[in-house]
Amino acid sequence: MITAKICYSLLNVLAVKAYGEAEFWLSGGKVILIFLLFSFTFVTMCGGNPKHDAYGFRYWNKPGAFAEHLSTGTLGRFEGFLSCVWSACFTVVGPEYISMVAAEAKRPRIYIKNAFKTVYWRFGIFFIVGALTVGVLIPYNDPTLTGILNGDAAGGGTAAASPYVIAMQNLGVSGLPHLVNALLVTSIFSAGNTYTYCATRSLYGLALEGRAPKFLRYCTKSGVPLACFCVVICFPCLSFLQLSSGSAKVLTWLVNLITAGGLIDYIVMTTTYIFFYRACKAQGLDRKTLPYTGWFQPYSAYIGVTWMTIMVFCYGYSSFKPWSVSSFFTYYTMLILAPITFFGWKLIKGTRIVKPLEADLVWERPVVDAYEETFLDPPVGEFTICIEIHEFVLTLLEQVSGRKCFNWLASSDRMAATTSVRHLYQHEISHVCARNQWPGAVYYM
Fold first, then answer.
1. Is 320 helix (H, G, I), strand (E, B) or coil?
2. pLDDT at 248
3. Cα–Cα distance between 204 and 206 in angstroms, integer?
4. Is the pLDDT of residue 434 over 60?
C-alpha cells in the first residue's frame, strides 16, 4: 500500500507527461492480459488443457447460465440477473475520465474525439466478451468462488479471487496463474493511477469554481495541483478497513457507494447534455459544426437518464428483503447526499437554472482556437509518432557507433524541425495556460 502511494505520488506530481507515459505502458499490459485470457478460454474449452476436458459451454447447462438470488425459481434467476446488472454498473465507468485530460492534451478536438470513439469497441471487447468468457470458464456455484465471496475462504480482495485464476487452478494449469496475477497487478495499479489523476483534477476544478476551499488551487510551477493531490492521496487509506471487518464485507460497502456515485454521475452528465441540446436548438447552433456529435440524440440522453434513474433507485432493493439498516445506507447514502448537496448549494448561493437562450455556448472557445492555430504540422497518429521515435533513436545510435543502422525513413531533420516549432510556441502558450489556470496544459507538447 505504501509503495503504491509513493508510485502514485511520483507519477501524478511529475505532471501529466509522466502520467500519460505510465498509462501508455500500463494499458499495453491490460490489452495483453485480456487477449491472453480470451485465448486461454478458447483453447481450454476446446480441450487444450492438462485434463483434456473439452468442456465447451457445459456450465451454461449445468448448473445453468442464471444463478438464483434471494428468491428461487424463475423469479430468483431474474433477481440473479438484476444482481449482475448492478455489478456491471460498477465496472463500466471510465469513459467520462477521458474528458478530464482535454485541458492537458496536445490537440483536444482531435485526440479526445478519437479516444471517445474507441469506447464502443472497449465495451464490446473488454466488458461483454470478458463477461462471456467468465461464464464459460467457471460455474457460479464453484466451491472456491463461493467460499471467497462469502468470506469463508482466504483470497478475497486479491488476484486469487479472479475467476480466471480459479479456473486455471481447477484445470491444473501451472505457471499461467502467476503471470495473470502479475498482469492483474499492473491493471489494478493503472486503475488506481487513473482514479488518483481524475480525483485530483476534479477537486481542482471545484476549487477554481469556488465549490471547494481556495487553498486547493495551489499548483506547482509545472502546473500540478499539489494541494488537491495531498487531499486525494489520503483516501486510499480506507483500504486498510479490510484488515478488521473482512475483505468481502468492506469491498461490498465500497462497491455499493461507488456504484451509486457512478450512476449519479451519469445522470448528471445526461441531464447536462439535454440542457445543452436545448440551448443549441434555442440559439440556432448546428451541432454538426462541433468536433464530435453523438448518435441518436437527444433520444439517447433521455433513454440513458431514464434507465439510470431507475437503476439508482432500485439497485438496493435487496436491503428491503429482509429490512437491513446497514445495507440500506450502503446502497442509498449517495442517493441521499446528492440532492442535499445540489439543492443546498442552490439555496445558500442563490443560483438558478440557466435558460436555453442564456446559456454560454462559446465560453473559452477562442482561447482553444488560438492554441490550436499554433500548430503548423497536421496531426499524426500514434503509429507515426512511434516511427519517428524509432528513427530518432537510430540516428543517435549511428552517431555513437559510427555505423549505419537500418532505418525506415530518413526523417531526423523533420523531427528536429518539429521540435524547434514546438519549443518556439511553448513559451507563449505557457502564459496563456497560466492566465487561465490550466494545470500542466503544455506537457503533452
1. strand
2. 61
3. 5
4. no
**CA-CA distance, 262 to 334, in Å (whole number)?**
10
What's the pTM value of the predicted model, to 2 decimals?
0.70
End-to-end alpha carbon distance in the chain: 33
Domains of the chain, by residue range, sit at 1-231, 246-361, 365-435
Q: Report yes or no: 445 and 106 within 8 Å, Cβ to Cβ.
A: yes
The three cell numbers locating residue 170: 481447477
pLDDT at 230: 85
The answer to whether 134 and 164 are in contact (CB under 8 A) is yes
Q: What are phi and psi of 204, to 5 degrees?
A: -65, -40
Read off the pLDDT of residues 370-418 as tens digits, 9 standing for 90 and up.
Answer: 777 777 776 665 555 555 555 555 565 455 555 544 443 444 443 443 3
Q: Render 112-146 in DSSP notation, one character per residue.
A: IHHHHHTHHHHIIIIIIIHHHHHHHHS-TT-HHHH
Find residue 259's DSSP bridge partners. Answer: none
The values of phi and psi at residue 303, to 5°, are: -65, -45
Quote the cell numbers at residue 316.
438496493
Residue among 378, 366, 375, 371 at smallest CA distance from 429: 371
C-alpha grid cell, residue 363:
465560453
Q: Judge whether residue 302 has pLDDT over 90.
A: yes
How many helices (H) and strands (E) the chain has is answered by 19, 0
Is 69 in contact with 140 (CB distance < 8 Å)? Answer: no
